[in-house]
Amino acid sequence: MSKSILLIGAFDTKGTEYAFLREQILALGESIIAVNSGVMGTTELFPVDIEASELLSAAGLDIEAVRAANDRGAAIKAMATGAAIVAKKMYDDGKIDAVIGMGGSGGSTVVTAAMRALPVGVPKVCVSTVAATDTSTYVGEKDVTLIPSITDVSGVNRISRIIFTRAAGAVCGMKQVEPPQVSDDRPIVVASMFGNTTECVDACREILNRQGYEVLVFHATGTGGRTMESLIDEGLVDACLDITTTEWADEICGGILSAGTDRLSAAGRNGIPHLIVPGCIDMANFGPIDSVPQEFRNGQRNLYEWNPAVTLMRTNIEENKTMGKIFAEKANDAQGPTAFLLPLNGVSILDGDGERFCDRDANRAMFDTLKQNLNDNVPVEEIEANINDREFAERAVAMLLELITVKKAVKKAAKKVEE
What is residue 412's predicted lDDT score, i.e. its pLDDT? Predict the structure, then answer.
């Protein structure tokens, strides 16, 4: 039985627009399940399969109570919760294999909540008025495709007609094209990378590939770190080679690439082997130089315009001490084998000997604080190398493989006890 495309949105205010989008999808030979997220009503322009009352019911709320409260923000939040629950159930039940929706900031919030509830690989297309802004809230850790609406999602005109039609073609094309099937049962290692640690991670990936592992690399840009952690929580990962932990520098300094305070938690929480390296903790990331907080532009901080859109700030001794303590706390809580490898000759390209971010006192503050706060059962090794030296990559892989061996031994012993 062919699965349908989930068409979700506020049909009470965008009925005409959705009717047009629906016609384009049907014309391309696909079937639709229409889900209305409009709190104040519905549409008679086309059949609706699931009404807003069902979405709110899934979130544990009554639609009349939501209407009576007259709180738009609360209504959107509740509708987003219900949309995610309903979309996930329809997917699990085998009814849908793609989703499309449209809206402004509020509508996009609900639509993309449904999309983020679905696995990576399921086609997800949202035509949105906010697609040209900071989209991290809407995309999250999933593969949501945002298409700028150009004009508002208000009426079908000479511009929106084109955008809506292309969006229909996009979701149908995604649905109809199946990724090639590959029989790859290699164990999965996730690794974190940045431009300043690319050489290291590329070398690690090359070695691990030869050892029979599949390496998934994530750019440590906040979203990348969160996505990596979410895949670990989903049970899809066998080990974590955390070369680039710079997102914690952004969390502490108020930079733009923070992955949140849960970063470095998933591997330990799930008991998988975790090698942690303080890669790029020498830098916090900001936008253009004018966007750097005034407190950091007083001449006392080392700022570097990496490019016109990115300004890097060298972390100081106190910030590195804070990271050392946090990293230790994360490792101490780990339920699986965890270890640290510290590069004494620089944690990034810019931190190499004589480079503009070279500050051995700041690095040493992090390393010493880390060791002072770590439990005795968490190994720490220091190596006289820069993080991008070949010898560092080789030792990092060797340590990770040692942790994997420990994990296998523990599993084997546990299995014997059960028998």
Answer: 82
CATH of residue 22's domain is 3.40.50.12020
| Domain match, 142 and 197 both | no
Average pLDDT, the chain: 94
Given strand 145-148, what is the order of strands in its sheet?
32-36, 4-9, 96-103, 124-128, 145-148
> Is 219:168 a contact under the CB 8 Å cutoff?
no
Q: How many domains does the chain have?
A: 2
Residue 209 pLDDT more than 90? yes
Domain range for 141 is: 4-176
Q: Helices 11-27 & 160-176, crossing angle to 10 degrees?
A: 60
Report CA-CA distances (Å) from 178 to 24, 96, 124, 163.
21, 15, 14, 24
- Measured CA to CA, the distance from residue 330 to residue 327 in angstroms comes to 5
Distances (CA, A) of 403 to 187, 242, 271: 14, 13, 11
Strands 310-314 and 303-307 come out as antiparallel
| Average pLDDT over every residue of 111-138 | 92
